[in-house]
Amino acid sequence: MPTNRPRGRRPGRTETRSEILAAALKLFSEVGYEKVSLRAIAREAEVDPALIHHYFEDKADLFEKAVLDLPLDDAEKLVGRILDGPDEETGVRTATAFLDAWDVPGARDRFTAMLRAAVTKSGEHRPLSEFLSREVFTKVAEAHGHADAKLRAQLAVSVILAYSLGRDVLQLPALAKAKKAQIVTALSVPMQQYLVDAWK
Amino acid sequence: MPTNRPRGRRPGRTETRSEILAAALKLFSEVGYEKVSLRAIAREAEVDPALIHHYFEDKADLFEKAVLDLPLDDAEKLVGRILDGPDEETGVRTATAFLDAWDVPGARDRFTAMLRAAVTKSGEHRPLSEFLSREVFTKVAEAHGHADAKLRAQLAVSVILAYSLGRDVLQLPALAKAKKAQIVTALSVPMQQYLVDAWK
DNA sequence: GTCTATATGATGATAGAC
DNA sequence: GTCTATCATCATATAGAC
Fold this sequence. Notes:
2 copies of one chain form a homodimer. Chain A is mainly α. Chain A is built from 11 helices and no strands. Chain A has helices spanning 15-31, 38-45, 49-55, 59-68, 75-83, 90-103, 107-120, 126-143, 149-169, 173-177, 180-195. In chain A, helix 1 (15-31) crosses helix 7, helix 2 (38-45) crosses helix 3 (49-55) and helix 5 runs antiparallel to helix 6 (90-103). The longest helix of chain A is centred in the last third of the chain and has 21 residues, at 149-169. The first copy, chain A, is elongated and about 60 Å long. The A-B interface holds A 32, 34-35, 116, 118-120, 125, 129, 133, 148, 150-151, 153-155, 157-159, 161-163, 165-166, 169-175, 178, 182, 185-186, 189-190, 193-194, 199-200 and B 32, 34-35, 116, 118-120, 125, 129, 133, 148, 150-151, 153-155, 157-159, 161-163, 165-166, 169-175, 178, 182, 185-186, 189-190, 193-194, 199-200. The structure holds a DNA duplex.
């Protein structure tokens, strides 16, 4: 009778793979896609550069696995949360929802990495901004009966991206230091206008 | 008595230099700083790559000459124009001033190139955002007696950058297609709130 | 699973002929 | 002013020994 062995794959020391993923996420968010070398990621993860190619196809594959893989948030839930409540507070709920989403560990780095990639990586314009525009904000604007929902949605996207850009990429100090409540107030103003109110 | 010769340097065919500058501005704004090779710029300008080094020190020098050299706008004039008029229309005047500034030939490309560089080029975080924050928006916010002028200014910066990012970098179609009046309306709301109004 | 060695290509920069 | 030739450096990626 055979002894009861542990089943499945026996990891040699498969922290390695996740260490590479963590290092990649960190550097992609801090430095950007193009400017990060696989060597630098290997150094950060304290592994041999060749191991990256052992675990991942190439740089683009690593980026995908490290930053795109986890869905940044369930879009439907987000829309539901934004729509659930009085119309006058839609802007506040929207701002709060995003600030909350950014608070979950890793989410902020992923968002920053995607934003940086949208600016630099070829063919990576879309994922973040289109997702937000199509799956979240257009639906919110349409729920409020706006014919120009797409324009409104893209304005809302740019508010979110602007805050992220100012805080995490350009690192404008006052944005980083401001209290959460103040940011909610600040972002909720354009959000309310773009998603709910009629144009003047 | 000597004949009246043309003074100063006699250009061999010094369109070359300006062709390089034009090509550099175009590509820096379209592709970004790091991703553009000097060879690509030479190709775009239809000159020999070595000529770039003949006219400019290095890549950073070319970037400086091509995109930073012309002051994107006289900050004091801009502040004056924004402050000149009734307080309730400050947001509108601010939005209009920027849209007008973007309409002068080349200005938009320079702005885009600086924004892209702010995201990618090392040590280029500051020029654009700090300039706008310190020289323009902080002064406007202070003129309205706000103690938190810096936070307000940096929020205003992020509105401007957001629009530019959405339109010229991410190329969100609805932003590009929208009528100027609509954009003025859209941007003036947060501007008014950030620069003039009291927080709720 | 891990690492050494290396292939292959693109980059920014330079020296110097015409 | 223009261009050929070339250098040193860095990148991604691969083949294969241990």
